[in-house]
Amino acid sequence: MRWIYSILLPSILVLLAAGIVYKHKNKATIIKVPPTELAQWYKPDNKRQVWLHNMFKLRREMQAVLFYAEQKDNEHIAKWAQQLNEHYLKIGEMIPSWNKKLDKSALSSIQTNVANQDYPNVIAAVNTLQKSCDSCHDDYQAITALTYRAPDFSSIEITPSLSFNSHMQALSKNVNQIKIASEDGMPDLALSSLTELNNGMNELGETCVNCHKKDRKTYPSEQMNNTLLSLEQNLKTGSLKAQGRDLGTLAVLACARCHGTHRLAFGAKSLLSKEPNLAELLKH
């Protein structure tokens, strides 16, 4: 009789857990995360983007094998098939736990059919291998890009006593203070806030060049500086409409464009890399 309880009780617990998960399906998303060993093949842990470049090689090699199979060009296809074999197996060398995910049967079929000059079956085998690649990409490509390729602003400082986050909040307050003072007829406050914004943007620009090394003056751009000058003049002598137009243009150029590239990616990265605790899991 005890064996009935040993089966029944776990089954009830599983069904209960499944019911709770289903009930809260609109509050949680299940995401597969890649192995932590993957970090060693990306910057900054590695000097080069080794994993990324291996993926680029595989994409190029699969395209070349398909192309030369369609052309029935055995001289060139053999070279690319050999490179495809090498770089595909390298996935398992770099991440041993992913060895079981590799479709070595499809890879072997490509090599055999290339040797036999059986081009229709080469194409079929490459397509099979592509489906295997796509399956892994569906699970891991987006989360891997967010984890290892999105910018990380968490350790950046504007000065030893001023964090990046505090500086960005100050810039946001400056923008809003200009708008408030402009609408409420306080031109001196609007102009002083503009000066603070200008200085703050230049300070931020000195941080931007740490990543944007080729453009020594990435931020603020010439277009941003021209808009700042126009806004300053309009705060002195222009209409509210002209002031609002310049401030809106500046907000797009100096805030929204960078946020669209960096802030969204960093926010998602921070959210996904956050270690969940029991209290948060119970909360959801």
Report on the structure:
With 284 residues, the protein is an all-alpha fold. It folds into two domains: 36-148, Four Helix Bundle (Hemerythrin (Met), subunit A); 157-283. The chain contains ten helices and two strands. The protein has helices at 2-23, 50-71, 74-94, 104-115, 119-148, 164-183, 187-208, 222-237, 240-273, 278-283; strands at residues 157-159, 162-163. The chain has a two-stranded antiparallel ribbon. The longest helix is centred in the C-terminal third of the chain and has 34 residues, at 240-273. The radius of gyration is 28 Å and the shape is extended. The model has no long low-confidence stretch (mean pLDDT 87).
Main attributes of the structure:
284 residues; mainly alpha; Four Helix Bundle (Hemerythrin (Met), subunit A); 2 domains; two-stranded antiparallel ribbon; 72% helix; 2% strand
Summed up:
By secondary structure, the protein is mainly α. It is 72% helix and 2% strand. Helix 2 packs antiparallel against helix 5 and helix 3 (74-94) runs antiparallel to helix 4.
